[in-house]
Inverse folding.
């Protein structure tokens, strides 16, 4: 585990920004113009542009500061706080273990007893890794389980919620709730492949879910327009026991992949494990249920996750909310003060880390650590101070590499600007009333800047070009 810098040193690192952010500066004309086109007042924007590593901290001043000390909802940009805290508190090589217990005897391919899978928060127990886990079980000589498969999800204490609670979109995978045994993000991936000779499109589903009827084919239409193929399928996902389609699939679409959140997330892990066990030829005499291993029973083997460095690339490049929440909860799971993990305990861990690293100034208001929240708040100058500190830390290469590159990959692949294309590593964030960008800008002269821009306003989504203009300005201004 990495240790915090002494508080005195950290406050000194942040001192310059606090002194120099009192007065707002004139915004670049192109930023002002983009705000005006979106009908968003300049007071809805908080922004700062500052050197990533000032040569002389005592005299450094931001290139631009506008309402930089105003707390705002940063949307998914809050993932920067969670992932940097994770790198410092857990270390870039940290991995999650999923222990597997055999409670019984094995004879002639039959386990007389229970198989227990204990979730410890792995954010990336995806379909392929669940398959590997169950294949390792079979490698122990187990083909039939005359007992139950027990899922231990007790490591996280998270209040039950509906995936529709946040924005009324329960089938959106981004609304999946965290789980100590998070299997495949609680999502079903449907793949549609047209067969022109038969006039049908085959539909495959991953993972196979036990006791769920899944329609294997849909009619093809001659339509070439694929802009709304999901609407054309007229899918019905409301019944947890059946996935069906009342429409047809446009022949012009070719192959398409459509991920959805399963209608009954509470039963997803049980259905996925049972379905996958049957898929690889395993037999189960009992059922899949929740439970815990008996006291004193030692694990037979452990499945190990990819490293934290790899995990934060998925979190930041693709803004994966549930993975960010898994990491956030892990911070308290690894704390001696909390077992099981909870959002409340993780908020305390991150606040303590922030105070030790930066002092009490600009303390973020945390909720679930993913930015999928109406409550989370942070100031642009607070994020800038954190990004400056990260830039001169040992975690800098991992954090920067996890951020989308403008116009190249991740959530910024479709960035429209040619000025900043390839010149910035930035985390983006979008909610109904919030849009934000934050990260590092590289200039042709070799200068590196921290750029943070947050807009909170009902028209925030229309004002995204203003943030892109801010990044373009930083690329050009930093080269002077």
């Amino acid at each position: 585990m990495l240790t915090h810098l002494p508080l005195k040193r950290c406050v000194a690192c942040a001192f310059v920004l606090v002194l120099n952010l009192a007065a707002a500066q004139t915004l670049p004309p192109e930023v002002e113009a983009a705000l005006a086109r979106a009908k968003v007042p300049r007071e809805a924007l908080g922004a700062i542009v500052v050197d990533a590593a000032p040569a002389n901290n005592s005299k450094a001043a931001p290139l631009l500061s506008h309402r930089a000390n105003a707390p705002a909802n940063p949307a998914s940009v809050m993932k920067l706080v969670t992932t940097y805290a994770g790198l410092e508190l857990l270390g870039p090589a940290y991995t999650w273990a999923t222990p597997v217990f055999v409670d019984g005897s094995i004879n002639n391919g039959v386990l007389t007893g229970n198989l227990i899978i204990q979730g410890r928060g792995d954010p990336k127990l995806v379909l392929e890794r669940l398959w590997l886990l169950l294949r390792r079980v079979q490698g122990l000589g187990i083909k039939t389980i005359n007992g139950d498969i027990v899922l231990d999800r007790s490591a996280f204490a998270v209040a039950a919620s509906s995936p529709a609670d946040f924005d009324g979109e329960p089938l959106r995978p981004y609304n999946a709730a965290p789980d100590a045994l998070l299997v495949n993000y609680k999502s079903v991936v449907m793949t549609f492949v047209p067969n022109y000779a038969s006039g049908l499109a085959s539909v495959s589903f991953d993972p196979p879910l036990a006791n769920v009827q899944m329609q294997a084919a849909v009619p093809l239409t001659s339509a070439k327009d694929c802009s709304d193929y999901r609407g054309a399928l007229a899918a019905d996902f409301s019944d947890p026991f059946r996935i069906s389609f009342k429409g047809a699939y446009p022949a012009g679409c070719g192959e398409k992949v459509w991920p959805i959140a399963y209608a009954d997330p509470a039963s997803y892990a049980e259905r996925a494990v049972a379905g996958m066990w049957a898929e690889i030829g395993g037999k189960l005499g009992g059922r899949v249920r929740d439970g815990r291993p008996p006291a004193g029973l030692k694990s037979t083997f452990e499945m190990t996750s990819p490293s934290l460095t790899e995990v934060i690339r998925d979190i930041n490049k693709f803004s994966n909310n549930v993975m960010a929440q898994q990491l956030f909860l892990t911070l308290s799971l690894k704390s001696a003060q909390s077992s099981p993990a909870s959002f409340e305990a993780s908020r305390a861990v991150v606040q303590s880390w922030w105070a030790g690293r930066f002092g009490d100034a600009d303390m973020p208001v945390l909720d679930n650590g993913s930015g999928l929240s109406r409550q989370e708040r942070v100031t642009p100058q607070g994020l800038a101070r954190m990004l400056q500190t990260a830039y001169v830390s040992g975690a800098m290469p991992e954090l920067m590499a996890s951020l989308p590159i403008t116009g190249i990959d991740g959530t910024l692949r479709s960035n429209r600007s040619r000025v900043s294309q390839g010149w910035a590593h930035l985390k983006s964030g979008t909610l109904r009333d919030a849009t934000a960008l934050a990260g590092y800008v590289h200039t042709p002269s070799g200068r590196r800047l921290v750029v943070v821009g947050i807009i909170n306003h009902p028209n925030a989504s229309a004002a995204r070009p203003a943030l892109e203009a801010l990044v373009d300005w930083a690329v050009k201004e930093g080269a002077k």
Summary: The chain has three domains: 7-93+307-478, 97-163+266-304, 173-264.
